[in-house]
Design goal:
The chain has about 400 residues and is α+β, with helices and mostly antiparallel strands. It contains 5 helices and 23 strands. Helix 2 (about 105-140) runs antiparallel to helix 3.
């Protein structure tokens, strides 16, 4: 086998390589005026939108989800047995307490009342006769004209007939009550549901519901909060006279909103959920809320004075926690402002989309709300918009020198 070998380049080849190397170095140096060819180029400016941190009094609140519950929900059932002959209510309509809902065939109950009335009249007559006999013979006892046994018999007859009269009067009352039950009326104000039993059906005592009435105004909002939030809520609740204001919004219709009052606290913490049930009362005269409707509940606990607010989009999250980019002045006069990364702590988000900053930021400082992608600390900034309005620097976003002059004005 022939051994492998290599050949050193000839003198001509070495000369050619040296000339090429010198030529490339010469080209690299042509037109280069920087004394330090290894220096990093300056970062290009970044166009951003900026907002000013402001201070306002804002509400402190807790949020929860729940559902609407009727103040009263009543199943309408019959308390006597009989055939339904009339149902004068309109399904889905509003009724008042005492409005007639159904009528049961009344003739058997009228007959029972008449029979009981007759028995009472008979008892009264018998009692009257026995009382007269007793009164006449009572005067004869001292004269020994009647025996003591006969006197006791007359007295016992009077007591017995009095008792029988009471029994028959109670039967008459029962017959009248049953007759009254043949007209089924609404026990509460509310909205009546659909028919569950039709005219002609025979109903029994406490049988299937004829319909259901739900009280619609006022109405409840039932929800829960975590056990950890309950001590603060309870303190605010007690300090405010056992009530707190709540704002309720339908999850299916954002236009359905109402302010109500939290006035019922649950009496136990759920062992499996770690939550406490709460109940608020809402006005519902326009019937925008319906039982079992899912809702969002905001409980107003307190007012935070002079809270620092920024748009929610300004707050970013990193491994170190929450931060914002603050617009900081440049090191040299006339240069563009630069980005400063500032660690902050935030609180709750307000309905207008602003977020409470509890530490790390002061009112009046400007934060980047749009354009944070690829933004780095000390990077020069072109403020395109400030508080939603275009700035003088916005047209110069394509060129740093023009932007610098606009910023310096």
């Amino acid at each position: 086998m022939k051994a492998s070998s290599f050949t050193l380049p000839s003198d001509n080849h070495c000369t050619l390589i040296a000339l090429l190397t010198l030529g490339l170095l010469g080209l690299a140096g042509c037109g280069k005026s920087d004394s330090n060819p290894l220096a990093m180029p300056a970062m290009p400016p970044k166009s951003v939108s900026v907002a000013t941190a402001v201070a306002h009094d804002v509400p402190q609140y807790l949020d929860a989800d729940g559902q609407i519950t009727a103040l009263q929900s009543v199943n309408i059932v019959s308390q006597v047995e009989g055939q339904i002959v009339e149902m004068p209510f309109q399904q889905g309509s509003l009724v008042k307490k005492g409005d007639k809902l159904a009528v049961i065939f009344q003739e058997p109950f009228l007959a029972a009342v008449k029979k009981a009335q007759g028995q009472v009249v008979s008892d009264q007559a018998n009692l009257s006769l026995a009382q007269s006999t007793f009164d006449r013979n009572k005067a004869l006892l001292p004269e020994k004209l009647i025996s003591q046994q006969q006197y006791d018999t007359y007295a016992a007859q009077v007591d017995s007939l009095k008792g029988q009269l009471q029994v028959d009067e109670a039967l008459l009352d029962t017959a009248n009550v049953n007759l009254k039950y043949t007209e089924i009326t609404a026990p509460v104000d509310g909205m009546v549901g659909t028919y569950r039993i039709n005219v002609g059906n025979v109903v029994k005592v406490n049988d299937l519901p004829i319909t259901t009435i739900q009280t619609m105004d006022p109405i409840y909002a039932d929800f829960v909060i975590s056990e950890s939030d309950f001590p603060l809520l309870r303190k605010r609740f007690d300090d405010n006279g056992a009530k707190l204001t709540v704002h309720v919004t339908s999850l299916s219709d954002a236009k359905a909103q109402a302010d109500g009052e939290l006035n019922i606290l649950g009496n136990a913490v759920g062992t499996s959920t770690g939550t406490v049930p709460l109940r608020a009362t809402l006005p519902n005269d326009n019937r925008q809320f319906w039982p079992n409707q899912p809702v969002h509940v905001r409980i107003l606990l307190n007012t935070i004075p002079n809270a620092v607010l920024v748009p929610e989009s300004a707050v970013m999250i990193s491994q170190q926690g929450e931060f914002v980019f603050v617009v900081a002045p440049a090191a040299k006069t006339g240069d563009l402002p630069v980005a400063e990364m500032r660690v902050v702590q935030s609180g709750q988000t307000q309905e207008d989309g602003t977020k409470v900053i509890t530490s790390g930021l002061k009112p009046g400082e400007q934060v980047v709300v749009e354009g944070q992608v690829f933004l780095a600390p000390t990077m020069p900034l072109i403020v395109a918009t400030l508080d939603g309005k275009p700035t003088a620097a916005a047209p110069a976003a394509s060129g740093a020198p023009a932007a610098a002059s606009a910023s310096a004005k």
